[in-house]
Each structure stands twice: as C-alpha cells, then as structure tokens.
C-alpha cells in the first residue's frame, strides 16, 4: 500500500525544506523525506547547512570571536578580566543546542504548512502512471507515489585520495565542528570558505594553524584587491597560509597526522599536526538515490543534470541545490526550491545566479555579489571602480574594527552597478544592500544619492559609491 502526494521532496536541506513549504503554500499535498538523525536518533532536518555546515560553524565562530575579544580587546574598553579560559565542551554544547533549535524549527514549519514528513532515506523505485513510486528506508519504511518529484539531496565533503575521513585525526567539516579540545597544531588542506572559517575558530582559541592551498593565488574567486586585503589581515592574525603546494602522502598515527607536500618552489616539506581538516570541495549526493531505476540522467560528478529551470530529463522530476550545477550555497538552493515549486504551479519562478551573494564568515568578513574586477577585465568590459576604507568610518572606529573596505564596480557608460565587494566588519549584512540595488539595476549614483544613517557601517557603502565618481566626502 502506498500514499499519494502531488509533490514529493527528497531531502530536507535548505533547498528541500523550502521547496516543500512553498509547494504546500501553493495548495499542493506535499511530502518531504530526510534521513538526518540527531544524537538521540530522532529527525534532524536542515541538511548539511543546519547540522554540520552554516549554522554550527557560525555558532563556533561567534564563541571563538567572543573569546578573542575578551582576551585581546576588552582592555581597550576599560574591561579587566583575569584567568580567562575557554570551556570547549560548553562551546560545543551551545553549538549543538543552536543546531537543535533549527532542526525543531523546520519540523514546526512542516507542521504549520501541512507538509507530511518521513524520516528515512528516499529513493526512486519505479515510474508509475502519472508519476513515480518513491521508497522510504528507515525505522518506519514506507512507499509513496508522487506526481512531481524534487530531488534535493545535497552534497558531501570530498576526501583526499588515499586519506579517507576518520573524523578523529583527518576531519571533514563534520569532524571539524566536533573537536573536543583545542589542538596545539592544526592543519588545513584547502583555503576555501570552510577551511578559513574553521581555521579562524581554532586559531582564536590558541591553535597554531597552517593552511595548505594547491592554487597559486589566495581566494581566486574573490576580487583580487579584496583578497589581498583579507590576506594581510589573516597573516597579521597568525594564520600561516602556503599557496601553490602539491600534497603527497598523508599519514594518520597515534600522535597526529603527517602531511608530505611540495611547496611552490617544488621543495619537499613535511607538516606535522594534531588534527587535519580537509576542505577541498564537495561532491553531489546521489549515491543510493537509485536514479537508474527511472532513467534519471547524472553527470560525471554524480550530479543530477538539469536545464536552466531545474528540470531533469524526466517529466515531473526536478532537482535543486548542491546536487545540481551552480554554486553550492544554501541560499542559492532556497531560491531554486521556491522557483521549482512555483513552476510546478504554473508560475514563473526566477533565479539570477549573478545576484547570488557569497560570504566568508572570517574576521574580517568577506562578501561579494556580481562580477570581480578581474572578470570585467577578462571580458573587456569598460568600468569605473570606487573604494572606501573602514578606517575612515566613524562607526567602525567606535567598534574598534577598521580593517578592510567596500568596493564598487560600475559600467563606465551607464553607471549600472556590476559588482560590489566588501572585506570588513559585518560584510555579510552590508552586502544585502548591493543585492537589492543590483536586482533593480541601480547605478552607483543611485546609492550615492540615498541617505544612510549616521553613524553606521553602511555609510561606507554610500562612500564607495561616491568614490566611483571620485567624490568621497570622508576620505
């Protein structure tokens, strides 16, 4: 016996649970399947983002930043502390509590929107008249039939060849979020978002952190001027970053991990650490989906092949988020989930990849949207640039956090904003103004003419827009 639904969503990460909720809002009878379990074995919807990604990493970043502020900067405010220490178990416990709050919040939203939740692994069984049969494997096996299927199974950390994750010595993002004590020496392979964020957490708490990056440039996807500013800040903080390395053998033993590698000069080197975090990208989760049972086409990476509207090769089957092409970002997945639900309803869902913001939650934070200066040069686009440093911003001075800048790139002829790049305090929040402006195809002059509150960090956005026309007022 099976249960029929208008829409079945496989996966309850940001793309999946949002797609399920939006489909239910549009009047469909919706089921969502997810296999994540909490420590007690209960459901833990939210995917990688909520359980071992975005949310827990931000909780640890906040805790470690508080610790560093107390130890290094409270004195500037006249606040004296003695015997400062970090209870790592309490920090991890707080992180776990934050994760559970988000898990429970999603379950509440399912109930509120009348989405039927199934706890287990969803997979294709076979095509049936008017839809597809979906099997749910778990403590309570079930068989469902859906007219429309949305695959939102996310991604997993990519392991180094010959060095699988044991989550004790060689760690993925999962193990990096559950380290029980501050390692004296911490190694990271990969200087992407996860690597830099986790490196920042444990450096603040006292680890000696070394980052090994294969690429010859630091943060190659970031605007070059912004990346250089960030690199200066990280160097000053004590993050040791080596670029252009070739990682060789990785050995895990009782005393830690030994990494053999060649540096940029092709000289043989050895790095010995207590823990090694590997952050070299992610791979789509399609193992166990049983795509072959219905003829669902997958790419060479194991990703589900889709068109611009997230349609697969099968009628009535869609896919969103990390399991398809495009940036592996939670908010990109959410936008695709909403768009697909609306397309199923006959509406015109919309996602513009050029307006998807990127954020690295280090200190200073790094955020950007649109095109970088190097991309514009490569495309031979004529542009004007304007920058404004946080050291000239009154609110940043009051915060005691003046590292970084805001940078605008605008079309030389039309003045339309082509990209905004920020390194500095609260960049993750400031970038939203740029997203809104670019969505409405605003010019830098538009931002320059809008009144911003004083004193605020957002004044730096206005000043950078003014700088495009070389008329900053405070620098």
Q: Your description of this structure?
A:
By secondary structure, this protein is of the alpha/beta class. It has three domains: 3-156 and 283-353, FAD/NAD(P)-binding domain, CATH 3.50.50; 170-280, FAD/NAD(P)-binding domain (3-Layer(bba) Sandwich); 364-468, FAD/NAD-linked reductase, C-terminal dimerisation domain (Enolase-like, domain 1). Helix content is 31%, strand content 26%. It contains 13 helices and 22 strands. Strands 1, 2, 3, 4, 5, 6 and 17 form a seven-stranded mixed β-sheet that branches. Strands 8-15-9-10-11 form a five-stranded parallel β-sheet. The longest helix has 25 residues, at 88-112. The radius of gyration is 24 Å and the shape is globular. The termini are far apart. InterPro entries: Class-I_Pyr_Nuc-Dis_Oxidored (IPR050151), FAD/NAD-bd_sf (IPR036188), FAD/NAD-binding_dom (IPR023753), FAD/NAD-linked_Rdtase_dimer_sf (IPR016156), Lipoamide_DH (IPR006258), Pyr_nuc-diS_OxRdtase (IPR001100), Pyr_nucl-diS_OxRdtase_dimer (IPR004099). Pfam families: Pyr_redox_2 (PF07992), Pyr_redox_dim (PF02852). It comes from Ottowia pentelensis.
The second-level CATH architecture of the largest domain is 3-Layer(bba) Sandwich
CATH class value of the largest domain: Alpha Beta
**Structural class of the helices, strands and pairings?**
alpha/beta
Rg estimate, integer Å:
24 Å
Short description:
One of its GO terms (molecular function) is dihydrolipoyl dehydrogenase (NADH) activity. The chain has 475 residues and is an alpha/beta fold.
């Amino acid at each position: 016996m099976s249960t029929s639904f208008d829409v079945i969503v496989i996966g309850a990460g940001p793309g999946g649970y949002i797609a399920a909720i939006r489909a239910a809002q549009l009047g469909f009878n919706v089921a969502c399947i997810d296999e994540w379990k909490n420590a007690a074995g209960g459901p833990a919807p939210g995917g990688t983002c909520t359980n071992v990604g975005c949310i827990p990493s931000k909780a640890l970043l906040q805790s470690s930043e508080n610790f560093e502020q107390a130890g290094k900067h409270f004195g500037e405010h006249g606040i004296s502390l003695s015997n400062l220490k970090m209870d790592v178990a309490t920090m991890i416990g707080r992180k776990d509590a934050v994760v559970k709050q988000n898990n429970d919040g999603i379950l509440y939203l399912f109930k509120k929107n009348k989405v039927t939740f199934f706890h287990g692994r969803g997979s294709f069984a076979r095509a049936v008249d008017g839809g597809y049969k979906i099997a749910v494997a778990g403590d309570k096996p079930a068989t469902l039939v859906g007219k429309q299927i949305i695959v939102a199974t996310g991604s997993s950390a990519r392991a180094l060849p010959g060095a699988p994750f044991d989550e004790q010595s060689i760690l993925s993002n999962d193990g990096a979020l559950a380290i029980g004590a501050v390692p004296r020496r911490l190694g990271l392979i990969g200087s992407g978002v996860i690597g830099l964020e986790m490196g920042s957490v444990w450096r603040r708490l006292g680890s000696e952190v070394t980052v090994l990056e294969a690429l010859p440039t630091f943060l190659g996807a970031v605007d070059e001027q912004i990346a250089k500013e960030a690199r200066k800040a990280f160097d000053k903080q004590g993050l040791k970053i080596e670029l252009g390395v070739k990682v060789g053998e990785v050995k895990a033993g009782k005393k830690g991990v030994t990494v053999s590698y060649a540096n940029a000069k092709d000289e043989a080197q050895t790095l010995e650490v207590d823990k090694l975090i590997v952050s070299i990208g992610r791979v789509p989760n399609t193992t166990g989906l049983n795509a072959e049972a219905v003829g669902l086409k997958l790419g060479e990476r194991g990703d589900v092949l889709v068109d611009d509207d997230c349609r697969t090769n099968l009628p009535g089957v869609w896919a969103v988020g990390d399991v398809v092409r495009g940036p592996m970002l939670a908010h990109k997945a959410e936008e695709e989930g909403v768009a697909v639900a609306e397309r199923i309803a006959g509406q015109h869902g919309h996602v513009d990849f050029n307006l998807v913001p990127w954020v690295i939650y280090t200190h200073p934070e790094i955020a950007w949207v649109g095109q970088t200066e190097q991309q514009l040069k490569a495309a031979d686009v004529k542009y004007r640039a304007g920058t404004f440093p946080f050291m000239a911003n009154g609110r940043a001075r009051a915060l005691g956090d003046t590292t970084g800048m805001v940078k605008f790139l605008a079309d030389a002829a039309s003045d339309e904003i082509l990209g905004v790049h920020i390194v500095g305090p609260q960049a993750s929040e400031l970038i939203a103004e740029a997203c809104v402006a670019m969505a409405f195809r605003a010019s830098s002059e538009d931002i320059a003419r809008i009144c911003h509150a004083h004193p605020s960090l957002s004044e730096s956005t206005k000043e950078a827009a003014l700088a495009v026309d070389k008329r900053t007022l405070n620098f």
